[in-house]
Amino acid sequence: MNNFTKSSLFHPGRRIRVLLLLLALLTSPALCCGGLQVLDLLPGAWLPPSLDFMINLFEGSARVENKTSQTLYITAITTTRGAPQVISQNISFRQRTIPIEPQSSVTLQYDSADLPLSGIVVCKTVEDCRLLPANYSSVYVLNSYESLEELDPGWLEAIQAYPIYNYGTLMIATLSFVPIILFSLWISLTRRDKKRTG
Questions:
Q1: How confident is the model at residue 98 (pLDDT cuts 50, 70, 90)?
Q2: How many Å apart are CA 54 and CA 51, to the nearest integer?
Q3: pLDDT at 81
Q4: How confident is the model at residue 43, as a pLDDT?
């Protein structure tokens, strides 16, 4: 009986199952982070009220409407820490210089407690940018690019130094599938071994 127990414990199939389960548990934080990111991207109306309150407690939004005849590129900026800083967005994994087509709108998100909106930088090209100052409104209308304020060079430098694409979010979203795959493999191998022994 002891020989049977020892051989079953050290059977290669059992070791693989234990390893898969351990790896699934160790990588589960990636699943939690990915899940929180997905919940953060969903509109608040899609979430239950209590969950929406917890996730979007200090979240503010500003809808920018482009009434001009040209495609413009917008970036949310905060100066809460002194120097201008980009408020990263997750719109198609672009953090800044988000395109806004003529006669369309884009909603920018920001943390009203830690990263309040100080202004929206509006660009025609990489170097040709102007400022749409924040006025604590939820809707900003761009009727004319030329009527916008001149942009401080420090703001443009802050934007150009910030990565366009949010590869970190993409990586976390990809890694969140790893524990799911590992756990699925563990279930599959467990069922297969039960069929063999049963």
A1: very high
A2: 5
A3: 86
A4: 60
Phi-psi region of 167 (alpha: psi -120 to 50; beta: other; left: phi over 0): alpha
**Nearest 5 degrees, angle CA 169-CA 175-CA 178?**
160
Which candidate, 30, 31, 29, 47, places its Cα nearest to that of 39? 47
Sequential DSSP letters for the chain:
-HHHHHHHHT-HHHHHHHHHHHHHHHTHHHHHHHHHHHHHHS-GGGS-HHHHHHHSTTEEEEEEEE-SSS-EEEEEEE-TTSS-EE----BTTB-SSEEE-TTEEEEEEEETTTS---EEEEESSSS-EEEEE--S-SEEEES-STTSEEPPHHHHHHHHTS-SB-HHHHHHHHHTHHHHHHHHHHHHHHHHHHHHH-
Confidence of residue 85 (pLDDT cuts 50, 70, 90): very high
62: tokens are: 């500003």
Residue 53's identity, in one-letter code, is F
**Per-residue confidence band for 4, with pLDDT thresholds at 50, 70 and 90:** very low
Cα R_g (the chain), whole angstroms: 25
